[in-house]
Specification:
- The protein is an alpha/beta fold.
- It has a single domain, classed as Rossmann fold (3-Layer(aba) Sandwich), CATH 3.40.50.
- The longest helix is centred in the middle third of the chain and has 21 residues.
């Protein structure tokens, strides 16, 4: 069974699927996603388009109309792939922010500490999927990313974009 991991970067969200023997195809940014011709018989689609343009947190910076259009073209490509493949389930994630203006209300939100990772980072999911079972812990590490990685720049952005391991595992269990 094929799982597409769009804008997959580290492959953290799709890793539990790969570990269970699924045929995981990580499609990277930006042109690969926009030009990707998906295979037939896709079981599920995980999409994590770039979030810095849409974020409502310290991860954002002033952005131009061109930056919005660039980021929206990636979101559009992800949604076109979902439409073309008609998977059994699909999910698109992004932090709470302005993406809601274009996609409407999200299907659910989560914090990493809801799934066993002791930090916070409000994340929204759009799509058609089964909500994963929670395994809550105290968010003892707070937002963690600014403490662990310090400062600004690509390292912080990359670290914040990694799907929490507990959530990835719970999502895989709920959406085989």
């Amino acid at each position: 069974m094929i799982i597409l991991d769009l804008c997959g970067g580290t492959g953290a969200w799709s890793r539990p699927y790969a570990e269970r023997g699924y045929d995981v195809r990580v499609v990277t940014l930006p042109n690969d996603v926009r030009l990707y011709q998906p295979p037939a018989r896709v079981r599920g689609v995980l999409a994590a388009p770039p979030c810095t343009v849409f974020a409502n947190s310290g991860a954002r910076w002033p952005r131009s109309e061109a930056e919005y259009l660039e980021a929206l073209s990636v979101v559009d490509a992800c949604l076109r792939i979902v439409h073309a493949t008609q998977p059994a389930w699909w999910a698109l994630e992004n932090p709470a922010g302005t993406l809601r203006r274009w996609l409407g209300p999200w299907a659910m939100t989560f914090q990493p500490h809801h799934y066993g990772d002791p930090y916070s980072k409000l994340t929204c999911l759009w799509g058609r999927f089964n909500a994963p079972a929670k395994n809550p812990v105290e968010p003892t590490e707070g937002s963690k990313m600014h403490l662990k990685y310090g400062g600004k720049g690509d390292r912080t952005k990359e670290a914040r974009s990694i799907t929490p391991q507990g959530f990835a595992e719970a999502f895989c269990v709920a959406n085989p």
